[in-house]
Fold:
Amino acid sequence: MADEVFDLYDREKLLLAEGQAILEHGTPEELQAFAERLFDRFSKLVRENEDLTRHSDRQEQRLVKLNRNLKTQTLELEQQRSRLEGLSQQLAKYLPPQIHEALFAGKYDTQITTQRKKLTVFFSDIKDFTRTAESLQPESLTEFLNDYFSEMTAIALSHGATIDKYIGDAVMLFFGDPESKGVKEDARACVEMALEMQARMLVLQRRWREQGFDNPFVIRIGINTGYCNVGNFGSDQRLSYTIIGGEVNVAQRLEANCDPGGILISHETYAQVDDLVDVEERPSMSLKGIDRNIKTYAIKGRKAEADKPLRLSHPQGVHIDLSPLSLRADDRQLIANQLKALAQRLENH
Structure:
């Protein structure tokens, strides 16, 4: 099309030059013939201009249609994105955060695969839940139970736990997969979490009594460290990311044998946290399918050294005084990261 336009311009230039020469030197006959050619050329020019106009109109209509289609496709993509975001938010309520994030980042394989890893497994349940539930109206039971689960879940996530499942009033968690800080740190994080949960339960119990709940929930916690099979179990149609094995059963039995309001741990877990907590040794347990007696320990509290405030002072006016036990796990991690960044800056000066 562009070549046709340039050719048209060239022809008009030649015609104008020819006309100028005839006007200056031509005869009347030559002038008449030129006028006829000029009229013929003008008629052709009008037709070509009409063709260009029609072509331009068609192009404009095509662009308008393309723009309309683009707007429609953009709107459809935005609607699909909104639906995917909504689906993602809904799925986040049913999947451990670590798995949810890995799935949507394309880093998680949904094949039926498992592996053996050393994990720290946590079980908790509500003492005499059935009897307590029968004393409450269904609406009140739902309210208190959701309050309890919400508080415990927030604490679990702040310590990096993987939430396996809720089984009625029971909670099953584990540390060490899909993310791990090492066996020792995983066990310590789990015990720290359990201590924070029991401390939070005291606050919740006071609040529930003020709301008319005379016999508020009291929980028992069992913790064990050992090798488990972890991964995707199920079929091609339905998978469950979970853990299985004898060590899982040990954690569940520890919880069942725990004192109300207490934390009962195995020797394997105690070996990882012996500098963190004071314990009282309890009778050993024997379990079907486990070829050893399970030594058990009831946690009595943090060691005095672990309870001491952290202090830093300098004559130049630097004073830091921290009480770790008064801070939530995520707050402790935030402060630790800030102190590390400050230390790095000091070293670079």
The mean pLDDT is 83. The longest strand covers residues 219-234. The chain has ten helices and ten strands. The chain has three domains: 2-78, 118-307, 309-348.
